[in-house]
Write a structure and sequence with these properties.
single chain; 366 residues; alpha+beta; 8-stranded antiparallel β-sheet; two-stranded antiparallel ribbon; 12 helices; 10 strands; protein arginine kinase activity; ATP-binding; EC 2.7.14.1
Length: 366
Amino acid sequence: MSLQKFIKQAISPWMETEGPDSDIVLSSRIRLARNIDAYQFPSIATNDESKEIVERFNKTFVGKSYDSDLKFEILKMDELQPIEKRVLVEKHLISPQLAEDSAFGACVLSENEEVSIMINEEDHIRIQCLFPGFQLTEALKVASGLDDWLEEHIDYAFDEKSGYLTSCPTNVGTGMRASVMMHLPALVMTGQMSRIVPAINQLGLVVRGIYGEGSEALGNIFQISNQITLGKAEEDIVEDLNSVVSQLIVQERSARETLMKTSGIHLEDRVHRSFGVLAHSRIIESKEAARCLSDVRLGIDLGFIKNISRNILNELMILTQPGFLQQSAGGALRPNERDIRRATLIRERLIMENRDNVDDEGGKTI
């Protein structure tokens, strides 16, 4: 399979567009946790109950939609290979828990991969909507519409005082997690993230790495999300998160301006060195690749690097993960083999981008 064809098949359609403030906010996500009344939570449900829930979804919702643009298909975890499940995790379409622990789990996925519904993860239902850029309010609108449509066919576990009942007490209430993925290299370089994170935590929000709880902030990418789900309406939670994210956007842009004024030449040198590593390495580990990709993306945003799309850096943060590398290779790879393949894929992707620009403009681009 050619690299171009592989990328086309691997990247979610929603990732190919840019949303508001996409120089800093990579994506916005709304996740709603729901359970079906009269069924035990997944952690204690019988195998027959879990199977019944999956088949109920398959019969009721797959191939149908409340919206003409959202048609669904079902992916059953026991029918997928380990590499296929890992790819879904790397695309943020399912959680590691669903991939690893749920023998009778499934993912109901829209054609554009903007919407995914995890079945029999920690809860019976986890609705997720992903949008490019800073679009939490828009993601909430879609998630709420889908939630209402599901509720027409399902009796949710709900209490008048507590709200939606969930397997984990921290999700009781709205059952909602709102989050944004942010690229904050300047705040890291200027040392401001070390004081910003505790301040954000005091506001009832949490800062995590790129793959959520317990993960590292690879490539200076941070996930900011709410912790409180009880006692606040969904719209209020989103409004609070919107306010904090807006402030972080202002602070990141200010930090970039400061770096440009105080050490512009050093920053430019760092960006081009990182580009050189990506363009010429024959072996590269994931952490070094993420660091260099972060530098190059910042260089594109600041105008140090011309004629390279910001989107290909988004692609490479996904495509250089272990699952994708092994999928492109057609089988399992040892760590050293992954590092070699990662370097090759990055080089080929940069060459492809440069070739496309030459074809479009009829001359050199870098």
